[in-house]
Amino acid sequence: MPAKLERSKTDILILGTGGAGLFAALHAARANPNLDITIASKGLLGKSGCTRMVQGGYNVALNAGDSVERHFMDTIEGGKWLPDQDLAWTLVETAVERVHELENEVGCFFDRNPDGSLHGKAFAGQTFDRTVHKGDLTGIEIINRLMEQVWALPITKLEEHRAIALIPDAKGDGISGVLMIDIRTGGFRFVEAKAILLATGGGPTMYRYHTPSGDKSMDGLAMALSVGLPLRDMEMVQFHPTGVLAGTDTRMTGTIIEEGLRGSGGYLFDGNQERFMERYDPRGERATRDIVSRAMFEEMRAGRTTPEGGLYISMAHLGPEKVAKQFKGMVDRCRDCGFDLAGGLVEVVPTAHYLMGGLVCNVDTSTEWPGLFVAGEDAGGVHGANRLGGNGVANSTVFGGIAGDTMPDWLARNPHARVPDEDAIEQAVITVGAPFNSGNGDMNRVRDTLLDVMWNDVGILRDAQSLNRGLGQLNDIEAELKSCGIGDSNRAFNLTWHDWLNLKNLIAISKVIASAALARENSRGAHYREDFPDAGELDTSTFTVVREMNGQLEVTNQPVAFTRISPGETLLTDAPAAAE
Amino acid sequence: MSNTAKHLSVSVWRGFADGHYQTFEVPRQDNQTVLDVVTWIQRNTEPSLAYRFACRVGVCGSCAMTVNGRPRWTCRTHISKVVDQDGKLELAPLANLPPIKDLVADMRPFFDKWEKAEGKFHPSKTRVDPMATISPETTKRQAADKAIECINCGVCYAACDSVRWNPAYLGPAALNRAWTLANDERDAGGPQRLKAVSANGGCHSCHSHQSCEQHCPIGLNPTESIAGLKRLTVDAYIRGELS
Fold first, then answer.
1. Which fold does the domain B108-238 belong to in CATH?
2. Between A and B, how many residue pairs show a Cβ–Cβ distance under 8 A?
3. Cβ-based neighbours of A147, under 8 Å, separated by 6 or more
4. What is the predicted pLDDT for the residue at A576?
């Protein structure tokens, strides 16, 4: 069946409709209403991706006792001195304006104190209660209000359009457009654009247990990698300690059980229903995410597990009625899936939550490629070795808005369209169409192997041996995927074709994660090497950068530029004031 | 599980605008949602089966379908809630929306109506202004809060008789959103919104059958919100503001 290719032209093309993509659309349309803007989403507008799934909230220094300097220091120290300090500063400074914009212009309504001022809640790793929120459904409030605004804009909306290749210009010195699949028809669409924002979201769904939205598959980073762009901090995968464990063939497995349950006194049990966290940390279950995740992984590796191979969370000793009231959303979600969180035992596992790494970029979201911009989880450098809870949605909305300001400005200075490299379009069409001509490889086996390899060998605890073993297996399944086919079936809404494309991208980025993890011979933040357990010298900190050159991954270690502050220093002069 | 069938017999709508039901046998498991069932079919039996999902946890509102004749989220509908001992299950796309393929419906009309109901915030201030001081205890704020957590999944819209009978009707979710905005004292779009929701196909097209309330997966009550809009629009009409 010959593949159909439609073409269109636009000034600004935005890939993704999470917090970053939607904000970019709003800002760009406002900056210059005459621009032709196109926004594309792999799923429905505003419904795919992870901003919507944010439970915790939005970190922002609003209170008189807090300051952007304090938020900055928490971000740098949380990131173990690896963040790009100018990106981190831009985050904390612009978050103040962005939250005002969300409230006053977009229409979000965040929780209030009795006196009518905004409520800030406590979040781990921060020296001030600065997390603005809407109950535990903050992401829904932010995205619903944003999507209403964007839905009403006179821009082109391409729903269920999956980007498959960034197409360089014919001269090879910039980007000319993006090749996509219209998922509904199965046809190809090339959108030629003068400025393009990559905001597809990261989301480490290549791990056996993961929290992000199930449609995420590292599409943005895989596209960037394949055209030779640099990815940084890719070894930094954040694990959340408690995801649901429901057994094989369940989509709910890996989804988050919120942190507040441990914080409020919940217990973690091994398979024999005995507590174990106090053997690892005096704070017990209340230790930080990374420590609890590592302890749980060790318990599981030692075989002290539940029937499904995980551990238990137990809340009953706090009073089931009280738990059901305090954590209503979580208890309801568990009940719908057949578990009694308030009164019984629920099987849990640590679960891959967020990718700190991403495409190297500048504070104005520009990248190495003229015309290509990046924001949100596709961008690297904001969080360094670890992301603070509440800095994720701040990141996507702050830099999405900045991209929406930057692109019209850039267009005014660079008004000429670039001529697409037609060979690259043709080649991409052939590459992604391969499974329609392939044989009977077992795609389920490839998926299971990927999930297990990443979990066992490239996960919470790593060493050179496991990483090398993992890389070997990733190469094997990369080859095996090529033999997996779906025959000459109808391309319209063909999820199995998209599963193949998802796996292709996930394997490509998994190799990057493993390679970066192998290159970092120390343990920082989310990255823990059992053969190099020390953090290393902070003063000489480096970050990893991975590029694909001639089909091979090349990793370099680059020195962190302490542009605002060096390890041992602080921007703070005072102790934090009381929150209220 | 000793009293229940080991396999589910799943009858699935296949096709585009025209189609038919096709039956699949799926192994039954303890922890299994409707979404897991369609995923199993797609991964193991029928690779071309189309369905839609994203978040997996009842946040995105992408995965709703007609399950045994009733609109539901599939990611949080446990099999034990919807099948009997024979293990029979019937799946179709959401009603009242154009079908795309198999279990996937086109949600654009739903969101077009959301927009038509002026279901977006009209700002009265800008980012340089301080944020509004609003007590969570005020009557209006409590009315807004009660209806605000809608995730626009379309379940109420698919369940609504008035939508089925009157294609112009804006539907429960869009009007519910309009009600939350009518109670948002920061919003400046009141007059045009009241016109939008009192026009043909607006709140007065609701016959208060309360299917929306019965089917809402998170227990919202759009009928009550629409009743609130009816009062507001009647008051505005009497004051001569809707002419």
1. Fumarate Reductase Iron-sulfur Protein; Chain B, domain 2 (1.10.1060)
2. 193
3. A17, A22, A45, A46, A47
4. 65
